[in-house]
Model the fold of this input.
Amino acid sequence: MKLKITLTKSPIGSKPQHRKTLQALGLRRMGSNVVREDNAAVHGMIRQCAHLLTVEQIAE
Done:
Protein backbone atom coordinates (compact mmCIF):
# COMPACT_ATOMS: atom_id res chain seq x y z
CA MET A 1 0.00 0.00 0.00
CA LYS A 2 1.20 3.51 -0.77
CA LEU A 3 0.18 6.97 0.40
CA LYS A 4 -0.36 10.06 -1.76
CA ILE A 5 0.53 13.08 0.38
CA THR A 6 -0.52 16.58 -0.75
CA LEU A 7 0.53 19.89 0.81
CA THR A 8 -2.76 21.80 1.12
CA LYS A 9 -1.84 24.65 3.46
CA SER A 10 1.16 26.96 3.52
CA PRO A 11 3.94 26.20 6.01
CA ILE A 12 4.60 29.93 6.47
CA GLY A 13 4.36 30.67 10.19
CA SER A 14 4.68 27.02 11.22
CA LYS A 15 7.47 25.68 13.41
CA PRO A 16 10.89 25.21 11.78
CA GLN A 17 10.78 21.51 12.69
CA HIS A 18 7.54 21.11 10.72
CA ARG A 19 9.10 22.84 7.70
CA LYS A 20 12.05 20.44 7.82
CA THR A 21 9.66 17.50 8.03
CA LEU A 22 7.84 18.72 4.90
CA GLN A 23 11.18 19.08 3.15
CA ALA A 24 12.12 15.52 4.15
CA LEU A 25 8.84 14.28 2.68
CA GLY A 26 9.67 16.07 -0.56
CA LEU A 27 6.93 18.71 -0.39
CA ARG A 28 7.99 22.18 -1.47
CA ARG A 29 5.03 24.15 -2.77
CA MET A 30 1.34 24.24 -1.96
CA GLY A 31 -0.52 21.74 -4.10
CA SER A 32 2.55 19.56 -4.62
CA ASN A 33 2.16 15.87 -3.92
CA VAL A 34 4.38 12.84 -3.42
CA VAL A 35 3.80 9.10 -3.22
CA ARG A 36 5.49 7.33 -0.31
CA GLU A 37 5.48 3.83 1.15
CA ASP A 38 3.03 3.19 3.98
CA ASN A 39 5.37 2.63 6.95
CA ALA A 40 5.82 3.83 10.53
CA ALA A 41 8.40 6.53 9.70
CA VAL A 42 6.13 8.18 7.13
CA HIS A 43 3.15 7.95 9.49
CA GLY A 44 5.13 9.82 12.16
CA MET A 45 6.03 12.57 9.69
CA ILE A 46 2.40 12.86 8.59
CA ARG A 47 1.18 12.99 12.19
CA GLN A 48 3.55 15.88 12.94
CA CYS A 49 2.29 18.01 10.02
CA ALA A 50 -1.26 16.67 9.69
CA HIS A 51 -2.79 20.16 9.85
CA LEU A 52 -0.99 21.07 6.59
CA LEU A 53 -1.52 17.86 4.62
CA THR A 54 -4.12 15.73 2.87
CA VAL A 55 -3.40 12.00 2.70
CA GLU A 56 -4.95 9.38 0.41
CA GLN A 57 -4.28 5.63 0.19
CA ILE A 58 -3.32 4.22 -3.20
CA ALA A 59 -3.57 0.55 -4.10
CA GLU A 60 -0.51 -0.69 -5.96
Q: What stands out?
A: The chain has a mean pLDDT of 95. Helices lie at 16-25, 40-48. The domain at 2-58 is CATH 3.30.1390.20 (Ribosomal Protein L30; Chain: A,).
